[in-house]
Amino acid sequence: MVLVLTGVAVIMGGILAYVNHLTEGPINDQKAKALADGIKSVMCVSDIKVAKTDTVRQNDAKGKELTYIIYQTQDAQGKDLGAAVESTTGGFGGDLKVLVGFDPEGKILGYTLLEHAETPGLGAKADKWFQQGEKGDIIGKSPAEPLTVLSRPLLLRVVLFCLQ
């Protein structure tokens, strides 16, 4: 009985590893496409290119390392459009990967969620919380303006970092 169960577990583990290997490439391609589409979305421009990518690491008040990936963007003519900043923050159901767009003056152009594992119908609405016209509207805010949406800390960490 133990040998049969062990054999089944080893075979199923091998099958799972093989399927994971087969799907690894398409999953990475889909993530890259989602990032490219997200950058276009938060920068509010469809013809855009990433001119430079920087990674910034800093520690929060509790000592946890936070990583921010900054995508400097340009239009087709090479004009600076600002930057899209990606960060991962903890949500209630898992990590939230957030992308926030800033114009050259530092005003927020838009934001989107690249990945999340939040509860459908509740936490999954995080992609709308700070959008224009919503209760926590941050679109168009600049570093000089105080943020009044402190009741939604999930996405605020990225925005506050960028407004420093």
Task: Report what the structure shows.
The chain is 32% helix and 30% strand. It is built from two helices and five strands. It has helices at 2-43, 153-162, and strands at residues 48-59, 65-75, 80-90, 95-102, 108-115. Strands 1-2-3-4-5 form a five-stranded antiparallel sheet, sandwiched between helices. Strand 2 and strand 3 form a beta hairpin. The radius of gyration is 20 Å and the shape is elongated.
The helix fraction, in percent, is 25-40%
Beta-strand share of residues? 25-35%
From N to C, what is the helix and strand string? HEEEEEH
**Mean pLDDT score:** 77
Number of helices: 2
Which structural class do the helices and strands define? alpha+beta
| Total DSSP E strands | 5
Sheet with most strands: strand arrangement: 1-2-3-4-5
The shape is elongated
Poorly predicted runs are 147-154, 160-164
Kindly report how far apart the N and C termini lie: 62 Å
Give a quick account of the main beta sheet: strands, pairing sense, barrel closure: 5 strands, antiparallel
Rg from alpha-carbon coordinates = 20 Å
